[in-house]
Amino acid sequence: MDLLLVFLSLLLVLLGIIGSFIPVLPGPPVSWLGLLVLHFTKGVPMDYTFLGITLFVAILIFILDYIIPSIGTKRFGGSRAGAIGTMIGLFVGIFSPIPFGILIGPFVGALIGELIFNQSDSKTAFKAAVGSFLGFVASTFMKFIVTVIFLVLFIYKLFAYSDTLFVWS
Fold first, then answer.
1. Which residues have C-beta within 8 Å of that of residue 146, sequence separation ≥ 6?
2. How many domains does the chain have?
3. Of the residues 33, 35, 90, 120, which has the maximum number of CB atoms within 10 A of its CB?
């Protein structure tokens, strides 16, 4: 049973890393669930301080993920339409056959959102699209770093308690 829980927790941590790039899947909270599942195994002691701090970080990053692209858009003169266009462009970019569509999609989405809904001039729309794109990249990078740190913590916990975790009866 412990081996199944370890496998499930590893799967959740890895899914969280993938989720740091896919907007539908909340990366840090999913990775945190992997850490939580690992602590349900018999060999790893339940450390509430560790779980509380990592949960706080996961929730904070989850919230910032929605705020940072909007801040980038607003700072560069964009509007809500540009931020919405960023999210739509990201979703389209994920399923696009174009290489690097996940990077191009948010920029194009913000640009189209600004041009259509706000009827901005192209220079203002381009500047807002750059801000939205930079906010998206910063947010994605932040989620990726946190989920990789959660993976490192998972590996550390797994090997630190491997002598008690995998005792064959």
1. 20, 27, 28, 31, 57, 58, 61
2. 1
3. 90
Short-list 71, 68, 110, CA closest to 89: 110
Q: Report CA-CA distances (Å) from 21 to 94, 121, 139, 147.
A: 9, 31, 10, 11
Q: Which domain holds residue 92?
A: 2-165
Q: Write the pLDDT tens digit of every residue in 107-118.
A: 888 888 888 877
Q: How far apart are CA 79 and CA 63, in angstroms?
A: 20
Question: Can you tell me the distance from the alpha carbon of 88 to that of 158, in angstroms, rounded to the nearest whole number?
Answer: 39
What is this structure's pTM?
0.80
d(CA 84, CA 70): 9
Quickly count: other Cβ atoms within 10 Å of residue 108's Cβ: 19
- Among 75, 93, 87, 86, which residue's Cα sits nearest to residue 110? 86
Count of CB atoms situated within 10 Å of the CB of 122: 10
| Burial (CB count <10 Å: 0-12, 13-18, 19+), residue 88 | middle
